[in-house]
Amino acid sequence: MHIFTLEHSRTAHRADLALYGIIEVALATSLAAGAPHEMLAELAALAMAGLASWTAIEYAMHRFLLHGVQPFKSWHEEHHQRPNAIIFTPTILSLAWQFVLIFIPAYLAGGPWRASALTFGVLAGYLSYTITHHAVHHWHTSNSWLKQRKRWHALHHHRTDQPGCYGVTTEFWDHVFGSARHALRGKSD
Question: Which of 32, 79, 99, 157 is the most exposed place for a label (fewest CB within 10 A)?
Answer without folding.
Answer: 32
